[in-house]
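hi! just following up on the protien thing from before. the input was this:
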Amino acid sequence: MAHRLLDIMTIDTSLLDHVAIVLVQPKFAENIGAAARVAWNMGINRLIVVRDTLPDHETMAKMATHKAVHLIDNMEVHLELKDALAPFNIVVGTTARRGRQRILEKTPRNIVEELVPQIAGNQVAFIFGPENCGLTNDELKYCHMTSAIPTADFSSLNLAQAVAIHCYELHYGLIHLQKNMNPVPQYASSFELEGMYDHIEEALLKINFLQEKSQTFWMNNIRQFLGRVRLSSKDTNIIRGICRQFLWHQSSTPGKSSQEGNTT
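and the predicted 3d structure came back as:
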């Protein structure tokens, strides 16, 4: 037993410093404070909120308790989710909703099993949507994976409860899976990926591949495809270079316009 306890104590839980909890448009101060409390209890010390205004600080701090109030005091606040996610290499969206355009979701434990080897070289964000409706499809487009908590018939969980379950699985996974992991290289950041997707979209619009009615559909499919590849910074630069060269060639050729539309 003593040997087992020593093994657990020597596991590198500092890897949790690579993880952030991102709350998108949370409605209630109590839920922000409670999320900070459970995150800190599981060793996660970075909390980000996407919101135009913040609820009452005292209410958030009270729910966080004095041990986690520093997460509230040092909380990052952004107006746009895109800006909040810019430095992260891996983004996990949490959802209970399903749809044809959504990434196939996994359980929190399955997500963590996949994540553990990747945490050492990458920054990871877990994003949670508003209490009443969750993340939208437009917000989930930034995600590389989606997580859904298995429940019985009544699938609704409090925001802080959902945060707690994911934080627990991360902490548990690092303790029990870390010794067997083979670290992977650093991936491109969300900022780099979004710049690449903007260039791809611009190039595809130039050749009329993207039509007004199908633009979102095709871009979501392209995002999901390239998201599975797990591109590096170098990869995104190569793709952007190709797009830039293509756009330059199109604009520098007098009278040249593509007559080809989307035939797929």
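Residues 95 and 148 are 5 Å apart (CA to CA).
The radius of gyration is 21 Å.
cheers
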